[in-house]
Amino acid sequence: MRRHKVCDIPVSKIMRQWPGTVRVFIDLHLHCIGCPIGDFHTLSDAAIEHGLSAEDLCHELSAVLAEIARAGRGGAGRRHRS
């Protein structure tokens, strides 16, 4: 299985560059928003730290980023978890 590129990006950079991804962090009850470690933790690190599957979290964020790109909204897209 191919590793998602978003897995290796620090979570703070993901949320700054694509604000629409913040909803995923909120929906999953991740406390990454405003966390000082966010500049150092990659998405994979954050998943492991919170007891989640890194693969699943990376896939979820990749799907949100694809939606944002399709919508052409820069970083403003939002996806609600089902």
Name a few traits of the molecule.
single chain; about 80 residues; mainly alpha; SP0561-like; 4 helices; about 45% helix; globular; disordered C terminus
Write up this protein.
This protein is mainly α. The protein is built from four helices and no strands. It has a single domain (5-71), classed as SP0561-like, CATH 1.10.3910. It has helices at residues 11-17, 22-27, 43-49, 54-71. Helix 3 packs across helix 4.
List the helices and strands and how they pair.
Layout: H1 11-17, H2 22-27, H3 43-49, H4 54-71
Short account of what is shown:
By secondary structure, this protein is mostly helical. The chain has helices spanning 11-17, 22-27, 43-49, 54-71.
Shape assignment: globular
DSSP strand (E) fraction? under 5%
Write down the CATH topology.
Answer: SP0561-like
CATH structural architecture: Orthogonal Bundle
Uncertain residue segments = 76-82
Number of strands: 0
Pairing-aware structural class of the strands and helices?
mainly alpha
